[in-house]
Amino acid sequence: AQSVTQLDSHVSVSEGTPVLLRCNYSSSYSPSLFWYVQHPNKGLQLLLKYTSAATLVKGINGFEAEFKKSETSFHLTKPSAHMSDAAEYFCVVRSTGANNLFFGTGTRLTVIP
Amino acid sequence: KAGVTQTPRYLIKTRGQQVTLSCSPISGHRSVSWYQQTPGQGLQFLFEYFSETQRNKGNFPGRFSGRQFSNSRSEMNVSTLELGDSALYLCASSRRPGTGNIQETQYFGPGTRLLVL
Lengths: 113, 117
Prior knowledge:
Structural class of chain B: mainly beta
Shape of chain B: globular
Radius of gyration of chain A: 13 Å
Distance between the termini of chain A: 41 Å
Oligomer: heterodimer
Strand content of chain A: over 45%
Helix content of chain B: under 10%
């Protein structure tokens, strides 16, 4: 069975400082992993996805994530936080052989001016 | 290209009523999935439709049902509403279902916020 664990429910950073949102996964097979972002009262937007072509995945808005099989992790990072990054971030794993997604519990990112 | 659209955006119902929510996928997308988002349970998969057939179903009671039309538009229905059904219902579309190692990115709509009183 696939699942993801987001290690922090809330992360607070100052504007211009790095962002690190942590995610560990559990999967019997090579997982399909995603990061989605949800701004208040909005739907979910795909930030990036792991396709097994490269372990370092670059996404939109300067975000990237590194797949580390030895650590079963897929942490999301950004070198410099912007006020517009304040949102809820979800680490997601796709069910093997199907299209249904399993979501982590989310990490709320606060950016302090 | 227009994104996933959901109607209505907000809905208020009372216990015992039923509700139908609609989702129009991105043009060319034939797979539609539904998710429920609540503060307590987070985001949970409801079901997926492709070619008018339900392919997968999450762990929800039979009061939750759905269907897909020949133009790929989808509806979900909740009968005999309970207070706990209050949630944001999200629809996502992809070109086709993911199978095996094929990854299909799902694009989400803005959601329908349902309040059950």
